[in-house]
Prior knowledge:
Layout lengths: L2 H21 L5 H13 L5 H13 L8 H8 L6 H11 L5 H8 L4 H11 L5 H10 L11 H9 L12 H18 L3 H13 L5
Helix pairs in contact: 1-11, 2-3, 2-8, 4-5, 7-8, 9-11
Amino acid sequence: MSLADLYKERRREIAGRLADFELMRYRTPKELFPEFCFCLLTPGTKASLADEVVRQLAARDLLFTGSVEQIAPLLAKRVRFYNTKAKRIVQARSLFTDDTLRTLFQLGDNKKMREWLVANVKGLGWKEASHFLRNVGRGEDLAIIDRHILRNLREQGIIDAVPGSLTRKRYLDIEGKVREFSRQVGIPMQELDLLLWSKETGRIFK
């Protein structure tokens, strides 16, 4: 199936998912924190598994109150670098206050917000920062470049090869190519990301 045909088939479902993300704009810091933790856990871990782990941590009231020693065992054998990521969750709590998030969101420009997150949140890279902003309704014009997307970008001829690592320069360069491809095919970037991700995984998730 061509990308255009797949888009026609899944466009309504993609729009519904983006509408869900848009509603996250109005959530409290405490309500946004699980989404942040999900994005923090996804590198090297299946998205569905990361989501399951976050739900279990929330059910046990560990996201905001658990120690590293309490959180790590729930991540073990399911999340890559689970000890380090347990520490990252605990460290990130101080950022999820009304004042801090107000400072972040008042930057207005999504790219500036991403720069701030990467600079201020330990363990958060360009992909994770882009992912979080998209999932809380602030990801317009940002690309979430993970291995699924990179494989599809290569298939579409947007990149010549899947890079072994993504520096800031390389990430922004590929993002620029995605932006141009989005214009060419007439699919907004946020929709294109979900479309390519669903093409690779078979589902529209987050």
